[in-house]
Amino acid sequence: MTEATTYDADFHAWALRNAELLREGRLDELDVEHLAEELELMGASERRELLNRLQVLLLHLLKHQHQPERRGKSWRLTINHQRTSIERLLEQSPSLRRLLDSANLDKVYRKAVRDAVIETDLDAELFPGACPYDLTQILDDDWLPGD
User: Fold this and answer.
1) Could you state, in chain order, the average pLDDT of each consecutive group of 10 residues for the chain (147 residues)?
2) For labeling, which of 37, 52, 91, 102 is most exposed (least CB within 10 Å)?
3) Domain of residue 78, residue span
């Protein structure tokens, strides 16, 4: 590999070069260690994105439920956008669905409650200790709490 295509010098050129080597079957020339690292990072990135989107979705569902007087198009658009993004992530990487178990849902829910308390000035005690919504409701395009 030339200096211009090393991992540290030019990531983009390195990625293109390694893709070319893979396609040509020149496996002995691959930068295996960095390829493995990048594949792991890609997986971690998708996991973070799914859980972050779920947290934003839960935050807006909580606001929708607990502040009916403040409901507006912006919250509904955010809810729709997050649901669509989660749906796309799960279509592209179905194995991510395993992250939506009750343990992860409760962890993400607690973070959404923390954010809801900060954003709304409502008391934390107003919110249930565990997620009051099931995954089917959370991802259902036609469901909103309190409706």
Assistant:
1) 69 93 95 94 94 98 97 97 98 95 96 98 96 97 92
2) 91
3) 45-139
